[in-house]
From TrEMBL:
The keyword Oxidoreductase applies. Belongs to the NAD(P)-dependent epimerase/dehydratase family. Fucose synthase subfamily. The record marks 109, 111 as: Important for catalytic activity. It catalyses: GDP-beta-L-fucose + NADP(+) = GDP-4-dehydro-alpha-D-rhamnose + NADPH + H(+). NADP(+) binds at residues 12-18, 107-110, 142, 165-168, 181. Its EC number is 1.1.1.271. This is GDP-L-fucose synthase. It holds the Pfam family Epimerase. The gene is fcl. Substrate binds at residues 189, 204, 211, 280. Keywords: Isomerase, Multifunctional enzyme, NADP, Oxidoreductase. HAMAP family: GDP_fucose_synth.
Length: 324
């Protein structure tokens, strides 16, 4: 069992999810939290990861490190997305096993599911259809991470678990105007439009696709909840070869609804224009979160509240973010 005395390595502690997980572990009394920056440990380098894991020998690992980005980034850097994520996952999971680390939590993504999966998407939808082409390399890497965990459990008796979050947002997000996900990209665009008194803001796509969004603090609490579950409870709500768990709200909205909510939160009063020449991506992505609810967790931060919290953080860090 994992206790507050356990040594936990959080890979990706500077990222949006990893930093939230570290904050919440500390709030729960965990004091032996191990972290490394990318400069200190490049997870793509197998020898470095092996050396690090042999020296630290953590009791548990949270694998939140990943190369991430929105549609533009995935389309522009497909080789980087598949290679870096495959290597990071393989290196960390194998090194954890080699050093007798029994507990590991792998963070994936809802993009693992087929583009036209039945909605809301259950865990059983995995590998039942064609992936969305714009982020297929990233999705394949994340699927491989799930299967790595399942395979080490099956062959070596490990307790390696996987959580698949819906679209995440919040503090420490990437607000790059091109390489970020929809919420931070939209938030920055609306904010700058308000500052410059622009008459309109252009939103990519038709506005019709439906998306589900989860605040990063909720994702962190869900991740820790799943990590700390006793084995009997966890096993009762998963399957040996279908061990990943969806994490989301179970509630979605159209991109147009998101844009209008964003305008209200930011205080932008101009016109919203939807550019239908830009890709929409998957028509709908809503997670079935029944399995997670059965395990005793559900979200607590609504979209407008979460956007307001994120915008407050954005304003506090605006000067720093403008340099990106």
């Amino acid at each position: 069992m994992i206790s507050t005395d356990s040594k936990i390595y959080v890979a990706g502690h500077r990222g949006m999810v990893g930093s939230a997980i570290v904050r919440q572990l500390q709030a729960r009394g965990f004091t032996r939290i191990v972290t490394r920056t990318h400069a200190e440990l490049n997870l793509v380098e197998q020898a470095a990861v092996r050396q690090f894991m042999a020296a630290e020998k953590p009791d548990a690992v949270v694998l939140a490190a990943a190369r991430v980005g929105g549609i533009h980034a995935n389309n522009t850097y497909p080789a980087d997305f598949i290679y870096d994520n495959l290597m990071m996952q393989a290196n960390v999971i194998e090194a954890a096993h080699a050093n007798d680390c029994q507990h590991l939590l792998f963070l994936g993504s809802s993009c693992i599911y087929p583009k036209l999966a039945e909605q809301p998407m259950t865990e059983h939808a995995l590998l039942t259809g064609t992936l969305e082409s714009t982020n297929e390399p990233y999705a394949i890497a994340k699927i491989a991470g799930i299967k790595l965990c399942e395979s080490y459990n099956r062959q070596h008796g490990r307790d390696y678990r996987s959580v698949m979050p819906t679209n995440l947002y919040g503090e420490n997000d990437n607000f790059h105007p091109l390489n970020s996900h929809v919420i931070p990209a939209m938030m920055r665009r609306f904010h700058e439009a308000k500052q410059q008194s622009l008459p309109q803001v252009v939103v990519w796509g038709t506005g019709k696709p439906m998306r589900e969004f989860l605040h990063v603090d909720d994702m962190a609490t869900a991740s820790i909840h799943v990590l700390l579950l006793d084995n009997a409870t966890y096993q009762a709500n998963t399957e040996p070869m279908l061990s990943h768990i969806n994490v989301g709200t179970g509630v979605d909205c159209t991109i147009a609804e998101l844009a209008h909510t964003m305008a209200r939160v930011v205080g932008y009063t101009g016109e919203l224009v939807f550019d239908a020449t830009k890709p929409d991506g998957t028509p709908r992505k809503l997670m079935n979160v029944d399995r997670l609810k059965a395990l005793g967790w559900q979200y607590s931060i609504g979209l407008e509240e979460g956007l307001a919290r994120t915008y407050a953080w954005f304003l506090q860090h605006e000067e720093q973010l403008r340099q990106v």
